[in-house]
Amino acid sequence: MTTSPALLIAGHGTRDEGGADALRALVRLLAERHPEVPVAGGFFGVPDSPLPLTDAVDGLVGRGADRLAVIPLLTAPTGPVPEALPAVLARASERHPGLTHVCGAELGPHPKLLDVLERRLDQALGSGARKPADRARTTVLLVGHGTTDPYANAEVARAARLLWEGRGFAGVETAFVSQAAPDVPAGLDRCRALAATAGPGGPGRIVVLPYFLLPGGPVERLHMQAEGWAAAHPGTDVFGATVIGPEPEVADVIMERYRAAVAGEPPLGSAPCACRAAAEDARQAHGAAWQGASLTAGAGER
């Protein structure tokens, strides 16, 4: 009998315990929903992670796995990193002779992830998101990590366009936490300018939406930047949404990527472990601490 390849979820480096806990929760969810597939997860790209990818590989090998299907837990390609995923996997194969792997595509912007993002927007706005008129006066700032790779940054712009299509928001702008422009304050300036050009009755509020799967340091920087901008612009209502998190939709997309990798379907870009999202996703459908709280100065406790 042929056993299924083990599923290895590869998150991009974090030292944040909250991010590690979220990945553990996602691994548990997948294990419960797909008991036939051994699954583990960890982080690559930074030292001193609380959940190293190498430990996840060792654990799967200890459970008898000799084949891995590696799915990068990313919404977009990372761009250049000090310790890239192929290098980590190559060292794992050296430590475990006979271990083979195939690398699938990253997750976004998949229609199911866009649905979760829409839910995060509704949660941030609370009761003020229920009617078409409410959405029509809402501008969204979708914030990605940011990288020196223009392709990776373009994936965030693609997600913004897909999130805007058919959902009734006044607009979806993009920004990045680091390494790419516009940064979060500049992105908020653009959203505010959009509201100003619309005139009376136009877009009157902004939702800052992290395009991140897990919490961590970059998300905290995003929060601080958004809160600082809101304090300096008390006349603009700014709301904060939470990260995507370990949701069932994320598990579904991971399994879709897993099955494609096992079936030998190459990621877009065709290079080994290229980690490019499948273009078909965009055509199939378009359609925490500060969650739901106004960031306008004087808004009170969050």
From TrEMBL:
Highest taxon listed in the record's lineage: Bacteria
**MF GO annotations:** lyase activity; metal ion binding
Instruction: Offer one Pfam family short name for this entry.
Output: CbiX
Q: Which InterPro entries match?
A: CbiX-like, Sirohydro_Cobaltochel/CbiX
Keyword Cell division assigned to the entry: answer is: no
Supply the alphabetized keyword list.
Lyase, Metal-binding
The name on file for this protein is Sirohydrochlorin cobaltochelatase
